[in-house]
Design brief:
Number of helices: 2
Helix content: 40-55%
CATH architecture of the largest domain: Orthogonal Bundle
Strand content: 15-25%
CATH class of the largest domain: Mainly Alpha
Distance between the termini: 42 Å
Number of domains: 3
Shape: rod-shaped
CATH topology of the largest domain: Helix Hairpins
Structural class: alpha+beta
């Protein structure tokens, strides 16, 4: 891990999202249990209505001359009521089935939505921790406004470079050539490099990659400076580290 940003808010949002998912799960289980119970009751009522219809049909088929006119009329009325009752029971059963199916469909959609939101916050929280893609030394950058080194607890913006991991297997020296001296140097010029941290030794190198245009370095004055790179030729065993300051002289 190279840098870890403050993810307190994201962590709180993630926990809140998980709590919302648990609450929704409990509400879903309650609703499904209620709807399944209502469906069972509707199924029972439908079965009962079918039995009543069958009984009333048998009674309604008894000829009138085998019973009184009043009883015969009552049987016919009971049969009609049983037919209507069966239709009502079937409609209730169908409605309960549709309600349960719709609630299950809505449950799946809500679960997908909550899962997507939870994944988003989890990814957001994970993004607050930055892992290095290579081995090397961590160099904390300077604040672009104050030029002070970044440190723990600093407030930063998304565009700030707060740190970098330097690969020490192929170190070079970055230099700035004063605009006055720019006409006197060229790519390939031999240079001597002296490091403040290794005062008893100098190194040989070659100047390369001189920028085409200069830029201001406010901390050094109003002159234009041209960025360039010095490739070292004899520093493999010198124990150089990123961030060391150097003085470069063109031979």
């Amino acid at each position: 891990m190279v840098v870890e940003f403050d993810g307190t808010e994201a962590a709180a949002q993630l926990e809140g999202q998980r709590e919302a998912a648990r609450t929704e799960q409990a509400r879903t289980e309650r609703d499904l249990a209620r709807l399944e119970k209502e469906l069972k009751q509707a199924r029972y009522q439908l079965e009962q209505a079918q039995v009543r219809l069958e009984l009333s049909r048998l009674q309604a088929e008894v000829p009138e001359d085998l019973m009184g006119a009043i009883e015969y009329a009552e049987n016919q009325l009971a049969y009609e009521e049983a037919v209507n009752g069966l239709e009502d029971a079937r409609k209730q059963f169908d409605d309960r089935q549709k309600s349960l199916a719709e609630r299950k469909r809505q449950t799946a959609l809500d679960a997908d939505k909550l899962a997507a939101q939870e994944r988003w916050w989890a990814q957001m929280l994970e993004s607050f921790t930055i892992e290095a893609a290579q081995t090397g030394y961590v160099i904390y950058m300077n604040h672009p406004w104050t030029r002070a080194k970044f440190q723990e607890g600093d407030t930063v913006q998304t565009s700030f470079r707060v740190a970098q991991v330097a690969d020490t297997s192929d170190l070079a020296v970055r230099v700035w050539v004063n605009g006055v001296d720019r006409p006197r140097v060229a790519d390939g010029d031999a240079v001597t490099v002296r490091l403040d941290a290794i005062r008893d030794r100098s190194f040989s190198g070659r100047l390369t990659d001189i920028s085409e245009s200069g830029s201001k370095r406010q901390e050094w004055g109003d002159a234009d400076y041209f960025e360039a790179v010095v490739l070292l030729e004899d520093a493999a065993d010198a124990g150089l580290l990123p961030g060391m300051s150097a003085l470069v002289e063109v031979l």
